[in-house]
Amino acid sequence: MTNPAALPADWRDLYALTKPGVMRLVVFTGLCGLLAAPVMPPPVIGFTAILCIALAAGAAGALNQWYEHDLDALMRRTANRPLPAGRMDRQTALHFGVGLGVFSVVLMELATNWLAAGLLAASILFYVLIYTVWLKRRTAQNIVIGGAAGAFPPLIGWVAATGTMDPLPLILFAIIFLWTPPHFWALSLFVRSDYAAANVPMLPVVAGTAATRRQIVLYSFVMAAAAVAPWPLGLTGWIYGTVSAVLSILFIALAFAVLANRATEPAQMKPEKRLFAYSIVYLFALFTALVADRWLVA
């Protein structure tokens, strides 16, 4: 039922629907994928491609909140979002999300190529249908499989510039795919009670904190291997290779600090909070090094 008090939606609530914190990382990795490509589109086309990635991310965030309004209401960190807080009705969120998504895909096809537009559409549908609707409430592997949704942007940026899928952007996709579980599991360890209250089967809720910490270390090693791989494969130069190796060693060290921690209370989970914060810095720094390598070494 529509909540009359929620209408009309404030622009700030519409903006909050797009999950701007997540969008920044999505836009950045998409931009780096475009800048790392061997050919550059005209500036207006490049800007339009990145705008489309941002709009698509916003659409996915809005549709995610539309579907998960009931879960968001049960968790402290999401209870103040527009829908659970009662500042917006669900129909507005649905129309906003669908409109943004359709517009972003159509504009991408008109500005760049059909392959980039297809990948953009796939990224929205994967996040909404596969992760949000199918996986999140059903399996502790939700983040493992669902991580693919956030891995599309650098691939889309590259394809928007080149029209082709090549080995390097596929590895960039794999890096973000493998980065997502340790990044998100670190967060879920210190907000475990929220997920338990909402009956969301995140790994710490289903398997416990010790098993989650072991999985964080395992995925950190695999992610690090993928992150360094472009250098020995001859796809990048020494700048990226050196930076990726150093950043990955630090990531693994922080993952082992998480493994060594036996705390079950959020207040005692400083290693987990450090890893979560560093994981964001890690991805920004890694992709910055990729672009620097492309423009300074190539």
Automatic annotation (TrEMBL):
One record GO biological process: heme O biosynthetic process
Chain ranges passing through the membrane: 21-39, 45-67, 88-108, 114-135, 142-161, 167-191, 216-233, 239-263, 275-297
UniProt-annotated location(s): Cell membrane
Gene3D superfamilies: UbiA prenyltransferase
InterPro entries attached to this UniProt entry: Protohaem_IX_farnesylTrfase (IPR006369), UbiA_prenyltransferase (IPR000537), UbiA_prenylTrfase_CS (IPR030470), UbiA_sf (IPR044878)
Enzyme Commission code(s) on record: 2.5.1.141
Record flagged with keyword Transferase: yes
Enzyme superclass (EC): transferase
GO terms, molecular function: protoheme IX farnesyltransferase activity
Membrane topology note: Multi-pass membrane protein
Pathway: Porphyrin-containing compound metabolism; heme O biosynthesis; heme O from protoheme: step 1/1
Record keyword Ribonucleoprotein present: no
GO CC annotation terms, alphabetical: plasma membrane
Keywords: Cell membrane, Heme biosynthesis, Membrane, Transferase, Transmembrane, Transmembrane helix
Similarity annotation: Belongs to the UbiA prenyltransferase family. Protoheme IX farnesyltransferase subfamily.
PANTHER family xref list: 4-HYDROXYBENZOATE SOLANESYLTRANSFERASE (PTHR43448:SF7), PROTOHEME IX FARNESYLTRANSFERASE, MITOCHONDRIAL (PTHR43448)
Function: Converts heme B (protoheme IX) to heme O by substitution of the vinyl group on carbon 2 of heme B porphyrin ring with a hydroxyethyl farnesyl side group.
Additional notes on this entry: Carbon 2 of the heme B porphyrin ring is defined according to the Fischer nomenclature.
Listed name of the protein: Protoheme IX farnesyltransferase
Native source organism of the sequence: Sphingomonas sabuli
Taxonomic lineage from the root: Bacteria, Pseudomonadati, Pseudomonadota, Alphaproteobacteria, Sphingomonadales
